[in-house]
Amino acid sequence: MAIKTEPFILNMGPQHPSTHGVFRMRVTLDGEVIVDVEPVIGYLHRGIEKLAEGRTYTQNIPLTDRMDYLASMTNNQAYVTAVEKLAGIQVPERAEYLRIIMAELMRIASHLMGVGFFLNDLGALMTPVLYMWREREKILDLFDMLCGQRLTYNYMRIGGVSHDIPEEFLSALKRFIAEMPGFTDEYDQLLAENEILLVRTKGVGILPKDLAINTGASGPVLRASGVKWDIRRADPYSIYDRFDFDIPTADSGDCYDRYWIKIQEIRQSTRILEQAVAQLPEGDICADVPQLIRPPVGEVYSRIEAPKGELGYYLVSDNSIAPYRFHVRPTELINLTALRDMSIGWKIADLIIIFGSIDVCLGEIDR
Amino acid sequence: MTVCLNGEEVAKKIGDAFPNSIDIADKATIIAKSEYLYQIAEFLKNNSDLKFDYLANQVAVDYMDYFEVVYNLVSLEYNHSLTLKVRCNDRENPTLPSVVSLWRTADYQEREIYDLMGITFTGHPNLKRLFLWEGFPGHPQRRDYL
User: Fold this and answer.
1) Is residue A328 part of a domain?
2) Can you give the residue range of the structural domain that contains A308?
């Protein structure tokens, strides 16, 4: 006699260790196989876009820290770049270099967290994360030295940055740059050919190239699917055209490639840091801007390559002291669009690593 | 460097295919008539000289007299970009055609706009509130919501 079976619905989250925040997946399962996934979000919605309409342009900088809180520096950078574009402000050269140094350090820190927790989800409980944390700690110490904060920096200002680097910063940064390639090799030694990692991630959660473009994926997710698209090269902002670096891409678009791309990007960011430190000029760190900025009437869409992908700001000004409309292009929310396509047909244990490989931070998804 | 296409030239091309479908076109943007939005979007995506395969960003702005939905389009192949806008004058029941079937990027973004701005997208496969719960009163991103 045939046993009658039917699919059932499982709620994963909102409180689940693998979601790194409050995120719920409504999973339809046939036994252990995934039939459908529907993300349910909004548990961390703070209405940042609405809040920002009632605050001045400068007061909004700390709000951006609280979006993707694992990459606050690049959030700052995306926002101040957009305001500068809107108001036509020129940034001094030294400030541009300092911004790039901080942004690339942030990229390394964010990728380390991304990779570390991805391996954590995979079952390599805490050991890889602690290796990654060892280096991330050094970056956070550098930021602490710089602005007294370890998570929400509020470092960049419209027209420049808030503080110049302290005396001991450069030598500590140089030491970090010298050590980092060795640490990256160590990760490769531990992980790149690890059999369990390969078996669990190779060929799992494939995102084909055309689907990646159609669903608007960006950053490591897009590049792992074989699209050579990095805004630092495609549409250079700040002074990225002065540096020599490669854009790593992979072709299969599986979980392993998304992991591998991040490790390669850590290497490239170290290269950029090396060049930026060598070229760092003397000079002003902030342009002369009025305390209350009133950009001319108009709108702007400005985007940068944040660690997790294209982070854009759409700002509308009505020539008052607060933005008329403040909108963030949510990198990670859009990267999640393809989650359903990537997970269907895989087992529930794979869903966790597929979700982990996208590398999300709920602070930005919900805003 | 991403080239911003001249809106007037692109509007001319669109005008050849769909006469009277464009309201205003200047150097930076094209403002399309809302009833032609889907056809224009399809044209921009499939035309071999334009090939806008990537919808980078979609945002709604409340200008009190009308809602404006902005589509920031990018072509990854040619590395050029275009800003397409569409206006919606009805404040009580604003409706626009959905572009999810062309660019799936619009899936969550249209849900977000529906949730916070209250614009309905016809043809969206799963138009539900994204951040707020069902039954939340009003649409908080509107300028007159206090």
Assistant:
1) yes
2) 8-366
